[in-house]
Amino acid sequence: PQPSDPTLVTGFENMDDLYSLTAIDIAPDDEYNLSINTDKTYVSDGEASLRYTFAAGSSHLFCQYIADSHLPDLNVSVLKSVSLDFFNTSDSAQNVTLSVTTASGAALFSKQQSLAPNAKTTVVYDELGTFSYKKKANVAGFSFRFDVESPVTIYVDNMRVTLGATDVAPDDFNAFVESI
C-alpha cells in the first residue's frame, strides 16, 4: 500500500521505521541509542519521531534506503529535493550532514548544516533538480550523519522528497566519471 503522503520517505512512526534504517561506519565501542519518541514536543507531523541519544564515540551515519522506505518504487529521475526535520535539545549548535547516497552508502551529493541550540531545524537538499537523470540513476537512499562531540539528544522526523524535476541534459555526467 502507498502512504497517504506521496512525498514521505519515512516518518519514524514505529519500530518498523526504526529498523529500516541502516547504520554505517559505527565503531563497536561507540555509545548511542536510537528509539521511537512519542513526546509531541519533538514531532513535526504524525504521532512519533526518531530519538537519537549520543554518549561517546565518533560521528554516526544512518541511511534510509529507498527500497526499505514508504516509497520503494520511487522514480529517482524526478527528484527535486530531500528534507528532514531535526530537533536539537542541547544548549549548543550541533552539525548534521544530509546526503543522497548510493547502494553502498557512499555520498553522491551532501549538505552540511548547523542545528540551532534548543530548536527545530529543517535541512533541505534542494539541488537535485539540477542534476541529470544519469547522475540520479545511482541514487539508492538518503543518509544523515551526526557530527557531535558531547552527550546530546537529537530528534529526527519526516524525511520527505519533492518530486517533479524535469530531465536535465546529461552533459554534467562526464565530469562525474573518473575513468573508463
Secondary-structure blueprint:
Elements: E1 8-10, H1 15-19, E2 21-24, E3 31-37, E4 49-56, E5 60-65, E6 79-88, E7 94-101, E8 107-115, E9 119-125, H2 133-136, E10 141-147, E11 152-163, H3 173-176
Antiparallel strand pairs: 1-11, 2-5, 3-4, 4-11, 5-10, 6-9, 6-11, 7-8, 7-10
Q: How would you portray this structure in words?
A:
- The chain is mostly beta strands.
- Helix content is 7%, strand content 45%.
- The chain is built from three helices and eleven strands, in the order βαββββββββαββα.
- The chain has helices spanning 15-19, 133-136, 173-176; strands at residues 8-10, 21-24, 31-37, 49-56, 60-65, 79-88, 94-101, 107-115, 119-125, 141-147, 152-163.
- The strands form two sheets. Strands 1, 3, 4, 6, 9 and 11 form a six-stranded antiparallel β-sheet that branches. Strands 2-5-10-7-8 form a five-stranded antiparallel β-sheet.
- A hairpin with a 5-residue loop joins strand 7 and strand 8 (107-115).
- It starts with 7 loop residues before the first strand and ends with a helix.
Q: Summed up, what is this model?
A:
The chain has helices spanning 15-19, 133-136, 173-176, and strands at 8-10, 21-24, 31-37, 49-56, 60-65, 79-88, 94-101, 107-115, 119-125, 141-147, 152-163. By secondary structure, the chain is mainly β.
